[in-house]
Design goal:
Two copies of one chain form a homodimer. Helices cover 36% and strands 25% of the residues of chain A. With 306 residues, chain A is α/β, with parallel strands linked by helices. The first copy, chain A, has one domain: Ribokinase (UDP-N-acetylmuramoyl-L-alanine:D-glutamate ligase, 3-Layer(aba) Sandwich). In chain A, strand 8, helix 3 and strand 9 form a beta-alpha-beta unit. At the A-B interface, helix 7, strand 13 and helix 10 of A face helix 7, strand 13 and helix 10 of B.
């Protein structure tokens, strides 16, 4: 199955206690697509500047990512700089230079408008809504967002959520979005918002908990999945997007979105995130095989088997 | 099966955003025994002051706890006062008055010396070692400790650990004890210390992660179990001891300590902790039934079923 993914491509400057680098290939689209491609075909819609390196275009192409929706604009590629301390769950953003991303206007080509599975990375909800308007008959819409948009553009974000099948956010974002500290109550409120104009039971909320794994909530109940205890975590950047890539990639490769399919997708998402954090940048994702992925999947199954 | 539990009994003053109380019955022994008694017989060894209320003695007695090892000493009962903010995972200790606990000298009666399953609550490792010396042929020794003892009495704590089958601590304590931030590596180091004088594969480490559940580690691998998402968490005081109570209680009721038995015990521990936090003090534990416990057990199984 095909996935249309809209989001950012960036050059990151990253500092962790274990690794650091400047101008590291990053952005939600990069991690998402390099994780999703093991399961489904991915077409990305994004923008880079004229400084974007040919080798990075080639890397994405080599991995079978469809780049026909990637615009190379006048100016510089989006840049993000951040630092992690020992508690890799928390990071501090040192600088954000939007550059060409400032004028990002996601135009979806006629061919892409027919894709049924859409991933909207963490971008302005105005743009997310603009993308959704162009998609002819979406079957599965998966959305990411962040504290900034929840605070600044809550109203338009709500409009996006009412068209969202699966929302992937972290704990503090879930609390902020619901205006409720208790995560259990917050999840109910968010799914309620997502289902405001649709039949109950349609929406799923995925709460990312970093090294603690994830919680999945829908009207049928909760599902919990731990992360894999890793001896070497070099760089958590992109872990959430890699999770989303494995998750949406796996889900799109299955016929229908059953509870079983959602759980399987969450397993693969967790695996892809675990590979992503073992190297600086997205390079933990670029030399995998289905055999390597399945070996780790079996490890995760063992950890959770009662 | 019988369990011998050594630890503290206290009157707590607790303030959370949802509930508060003064002179609330508490201490590790209280939570532990009220949770464990649903699975095994429990004898406690501890000390209270002359201010300890008859109604609280009666409460413990009514629940079948053997109090022959409970000393009523001259002076006041141990008092602890603490405050939780919205993030119930963190608490601030406002005051600790050891009172009669200062001169606690755990003497084990000849009858109790024959008990095979021993739980050593979070007390001075000097006292933990003193208890272990009196036990004739312990088969299962489960130990709790805290940052204070890890910092102040590391050497003697190590001696305790070499006689410990199962150590139950939280994440920061595991990191501190191992001198290693990475939890995966830390677990290996701690189990190594515990097995220093015994054959490999004998020791189990349980890392409590509060609302995120727990990680269990031994030479055969990891096991992860989430907590139950709760809509009402009133008071996390005693959650760890309630977990230990359900865990050790269940384990003692089984013939041998297999991996299967350890997992089952972890499930019941998690359930008992979930009941404990729903009320102020230990009163979430005092009116349960096996039916109520098993209903929640089934909920936990559903949440974790892949």
């Amino acid at each position: 199955m095909n996935i249309l993914a809209v989001g950012s491509i960036a050059y990151d400057s990253i500092k962790t206690p274990f690794a650091s680098g400047k101008g590291v290939l990053g952005g939600s689209l990069t991690y998402f697509s390099l994780a999703a491609k093991y399961f489904s075909r991915v077409s990305i819609v994004g923008v880079v500047g004229q400084d974007f390196k040919r080798q990075h275009l080639n890397l994405l192409r080599k991995h079978g990512i469809n780049l026909s929706g990637l615009k190379i604009a006048n100016g510089k590629t989006f840049r993000w700089s951040g630092i992690y301390n020992y508690d890799l769950n928390n990071r501090e953003t040192l600088s954000t230079q939007l550059n060409v991303f400032k004028n990002f206007n996601p135009l979806i080509s006629p061919r892409h408008q027919n894709i049924k599975t859409v991933f909207l990375g963490n971008i302005d909800p105005v743009l997310q809504l603009q993308v959704l308007k162009q998609i002819k008959s979406p079957k599965l819409v998966v959305v990411d967002t962040m504290n900034y948009w929840i605070e600044k553009k809550r109203k338009i974000l709500r409009r996006v959520l009412r068209q969202t099948d699966i929302l992937i956010i972290n704990e503090s974002e879930a609390r902020q979005l619901a205006g409720q500290y208790n995560l259990s109550k917050a999840a109910g409120l968010i799914v309620g918002q997502m289902e405001a104009t649709r039949r109950a039971g349609k929406a799923t909320l995925l709460i990312k908990q970093g090294e603690y794994g994830l919680l999945m909530f829908h009207r049928r109940g909760w599902f919990s999945l731990p992360a894999i205890p890793l001896e070497r975590v070099f760089d958590p950047t992109g872990a959430g997007d890699s999770f989303a890539g494995g998750f949406v990639g796996c889900l799109a490769s299955q016929k229908t979105v059953t509870d079983r399919a959602l759980k399987k997708a969450a397993l693969y998402g967790t695996i892809m995130a675990s590979f992503a954090v073992e190297k600086l940048g997205p390079f933990g994702l670029t030399s995998l095989s289905r055999a390597k992925i399945n070996t780790r999947l079996n490890a995760l199954r063992l950890i959770t088997r009662i």
